[in-house]
Amino acid sequence: MIIAAVVGFTIGLLLKTATVVAQQNVSFLNGLPENFTSDGAIDVQYTSCKVITDRIVATAEGKFSRFCHGICNINETNVRLHRIETLLTADAENIKQRLFHIERVLLSGQIISKPAVGDGGAGPVDTKRLREIGTYNGTVSTAEDGPTGNGRPRAPTIAAFVYYWRVDAFWRLSFGAANGLVRSPPFYVSPRSYRISLSVHSDVVARTVRVAAVSAAGEYDAQLRWPFAHRLRLSVLDQTDFEPEDIVSRIWDDVRCAATAETVCASMEFRHDVLTYRRYAVGDAIVVKLTVFLQ
Fold it and tell me: What's the chain look like in SS3?
């Protein structure tokens, strides 16, 4: 269709050019003196026709170039519109999957907490995950040394220190704070040992969450072996008793954080929308778990 339009445009332009040239040549010949020879008239007529034709061809080329440039812009616009349509379709599918998950959660009756007393509720409900936090937070117990499930053999258990940190008002932190960064109070991983704090950084531009274990200056740093001597693992709890699936980092067995404060010992990063797939953010709060393998 575009080719037909271009051909029609070119033919029309050439016909118009021929008409103009013929009219100008007739007017030119009418103005010549009677004693002017035919050969001279032909030479002058040829020169005049060539000048006029060159000027009209140049004008046509300019118009044709602008016409083609417009076609290119249309094609580029179509590509951009198609890209926008693809992104909107992906977002709509993502929203649909989230709604399906919310429906499944509501139908299965998965509840970990009720509104706080100040919100008109009766306070948190007793669940297995809350009991886990209350029992093991800040203690040394046994933990599996490696990933399990999906057909993998059960990993051996070794002594490990676990620490749970509840990050309240997470979404308000993400969209309200100046830099979206919050840090836990520092703590020791065992008596007379290393001191660490946890941090959560929510980046609204990149739509990512970064959870990290950061070294903190401690009273016993001069007596300890550096860099940090223990392996670490970070988790964000799935706050449900119904087959929970925590967000878990790899086991950091190459920790290089030093005695200086603010050194990252271990970290993991994931997108904001991951938190909506399951009950990772409940009551505008997430729970971060740090496991320190002491052997």
Answer: CHHHHHHHHHHHHHHHHHHHHHHHHHHHHHCCCCCCCHHHHHHHHHHHHHHHHHHHHHHHHHHHHHHHHHHHHHHHHHHHHHHHHHHHHHHHHHHHHHHHHHHHHHHHCCCCCCCCHHHCCCCCCCCHHHHHHHHHCCEEEEEECCCCECCECCCCEEEEEEEEEEECCHHHHHHHCCCCEEECCCEECCCCCCEEEEEEEEECCCCEEEEEEEECCCCCHHHCCCCCCCEEEEEECCCCCCCCCCEECCCECCCCCCCCCCCEEEEEEEEHHHHHCCCCCECCEEEEEEEEECC
